[in-house]
Write a structure and sequence with these properties.
alpha/beta; Rossmann fold; 3-stranded antiparallel β-sheet; globular; Vacuolar-processing enzyme isoform B; protease; AE; glycoprotein; cysteine-type endopeptidase activity
Length: 470
């Protein structure tokens, strides 16, 4: 699959009349050139100036191919933002929406993100972490108390705060923390995003998902319409300047497509479009594989892509858009079947901001010169998110001693997972046949709305159906 070409508006589009542009800017251009090149301009006839201006425009256009172009904005890789120019506070909300050792990668992703933010200079009091916390000391974990996010990676679990764990990782607590509403919290540390009008907020959510829905380890699922209403409410409160949302989940594009407004200072990227799976990585059988004692995927492809990029670059100079392009290239996995289409939504103009505004930056990377190439290694064969649990159960079964309780348990887990999938598939097909007829049912169930449209109009109906199936 090929990605569609991106379109960006430009101050000098092919349809811009050049003569009015020249006349409008001629006096300013001449004054500037007289200041910069007095000896040259003093000997040059006035009628040569438009020609010189056109040459400079052509030169600027050719140079812009090596710059980051978003809207009417050009940013050179060497341009920086320092602490003196940054106002407000950086806040972050990190959420892993799953539990179970077979979902190891989601909590590993969140722990890694926390370490990036801390190295970037964010204070612990400004980072709110949601994770079930059943992985580090799980009986399946070959390194008790340690979580890694790549095969040769170090421990990312150490120092991560336990703000909301176990049954406190809920939709209601997530929304309350994001809105800064302490009175609506149930359990947990009580930490919320107590932000002001000059503050920048980064939200990272990693989990399983489906069309219009995201998973949660406790309580009901999170639905796209509810999330969008909370984001609108946050904007209406005037308690942030800009907000960036990174989302890892299958069909994650459906959470924002046709729903996220472009005028509330929120920029979002997703691991996949509205119709496809996202992918796990560093899985058993993949190259490079996790250490042999592991039976589960260590990370997610989109998440690992943005975090490994952040680990090595100077985030004072790298923009959100530059990272988006690099992550998109790595996540599509060479246009092969094994990958997904990273998408962007909301106020895309915010992507010209440097990552430093949201993630801070590791001082160890200050001398790194950004190169607009994806030098990060891509796994040869990532794993569909929905198959990652089967990979774990099968690898566990394969490695267990013959006739052991562990082998029998793993076999049972594989069969139960497959049985549940068949039950859901058959139930949906039956509903389609009952509602639309035997012949029409499959056609209606497989129908896709036009690109850019919200998943559904009646969210209550969708929620009722999902609750019936799960």
């Amino acid at each position: 699959m090929k990605l569609p070409k991106e379109r960006f508006s430009s101050q000098f589009s092919p349809h811009t009349p050049l003569q009015p542009l020249i006349s409008m800017n001629l006096s300013l251009f001449k004054s500037t050139c007289l200041f910069l090149f007095p000896s040259l301009l003093s000997k040059m006839p006035t009628f040569f100036l438009p020609t010189l201006l056109l040459l400079l425009i052509a030169f600027a256009t050719s140079v812009s191919g090596r710059r980051d172009l978003v809207g009417d904005f050009l940013r050179l890789p060497s341009e920086t933002d320092n602490d003196d120019n940054f106002k407000g506070t950086r806040w972050a909300v990190l959420l892993a929406g799953s539990n179970g050792y077979w979902n190891y990668r989601h909590q590993a992703d969140v722990c890694h993100a926390y370490q990036i933010l801390r190295k970037g200079g964010l204070k612990e009091e400004n980072i709110i972490v949601f994770m079930y916390d059943d992985i580090a000391f799980n009986g399946e974990n070959p390194r008790p108390g340690v979580i890694i996010n790549k095969p040769d990676g170090g421990d990312v679990y150490k120092g991560v705060p336990k703000d909301y764990t176990g049954e406190d990782v809920t939709v209601d607590n997530f929304f309350a923390a994001l809105l800064g509403n302490k009175s609506a919290l149930t359990g947990g540390s009580g930490k919320v995003v107590d932000s002001g009008p000059d503050d920048h907020i980064f939200v990272y959510y990693t989990d399983h998902g489906g069309p219009g829905v995201l998973g949660m380890p406790a309580g009901p699922y999170l639905y796209a319409d509810d999330l969008i209403e909370v984001l609108k409410k946050k904007h209406a409160s005037g308690t942030y300047k800009n907000l960036v949302f990174y989302l890892e989940a299958c069909e994650s594009g459906s959470i924002f497509e046709g729903l996220l407004p472009e005028d509330i200072n929120i920029y979002a990227t997703t691991a996949s479009n509205a119709e496809e799976s996202s992918w796990g990585t560093y899985c058993p059988g993949e190259y490079p594989s996790p250490p042999p004692e592991y039976t589960t995927c260590l990370g997610d492809l989109y998440s690992v892509a943005w975090m490994e990029d952040s680990d090595r670059h100077n985030l004072r100079t790298e923009t959100l858009h530059q990272q988006y392009k690099l992550v998109k290239e790595r996540t599509i996995s060479g246009d092969s079947y094994y990958g997904s289409h990273v998408m962007q939504y909301g106020d895309v103009g915010l992507s010209r901001d440097v990552l430093f505004h949201y993630l801070g930056t590791d001082p160890a990377n200050d001398n790194f010169t950004f190169v607009d190439e994806n030098s990060l290694w891509s796994p040869s064969k990532p794993v569909n998110q929905r198959d990652a649990d089967l990979i774990h159960f099968w690898d566990k079964f394969r490695k267990a001693p013959e006739g052991s309780l562990r082998k029998n348990t793993a076999q049972k887990q594989v069969l139960e997972a497959m049985s549940h999938r068949m039950h859901v598939d058959n139930s949906v097909k039956l509903i389609g046949k009952l509602l639309f007829g035997i012949e029409k049912g499959p056609e209606v169930l497989n129908a896709v709305r036009p690109a850019g449209s919200a998943l559904v109009d009646d969210w209550h109906c969708l929620k009722t159906m999902v609750s019936f199936l799960f």
